Amino acid sequence: MSGGPSVCDLEHIGRALGVTEIRRESTHERGRLIRVPGGYKIEVRESLDALDVRFIVAHELTHLIIERFDLLDAIAPQPGSSFSRTVSYDFLERLCDAGARELLFPMVDLRRHLRGQAPSIELVRRFAVDRACSLPVATHRICESGFWQCRFLWWGYARDQLFAERAIDARGELSTKELLHVSLADPTTSLAWRALSSGSTLSGDETLMIWDTPATYRAQAVATRDNQVVEMLLRN
Ligand SMILES: [Zn+2]
Q1: Which of 108, 138, 195, 213 could, after both became Cys, cross-link 128 (CB 3.0–4.6 A)?
Q2: Considering the entire predicted model, what is its pTM?
Q3: How far is ligand 1, taken at its centre, from the CA of residue 67, in Å?
């Protein structure tokens, strides 16, 4: 074994599960699984970028894996309770998102690579590139692993201001409503702003206002394409 990163071959898994075609379509849904003669077809919205397409395909494959192996009844809180007939749509979708993250970036693989490594946003970026998964998927995995006790914030830039666009912590993604109450304590001197202005990766302290309460974190911030800043926040 080389020990190098392994990129999940989704088409191979798809073929093993009876997927005969994966194609981009101008569909409203991000992705969907359709039963066709002789197997299944996966359709993915054509405007999505390649890494998002991989996530959607992995999500749809997880639907198939769950169905094929009766996994819902296997995880039923009470054996024999026909759990599969009572779970909500949201629960199933979250389960398939979790399955997609596991396919793209297996936890056992992540833990092996995190062992002995200090928290580093550059390392997370490299993980994402090496596994051909998006940065949000890689950051979600880091949070789920519990290895670094951190959270990630995405700052968007508009009208000379940075605003919280996305946040991921150990519980998952914050809702849009929750994000409205997260801001930078001092936008012009913030690490996020300096990372955006300099176009480089910076480390230091970052103070956020969460509701009306200041909270200071050790942080690393990196500017990405499209005038975004991703910040990793660690407990001080
Ligand atoms: Zn789904």
Answers
A1: 138
A2: 0.87
A3: 12
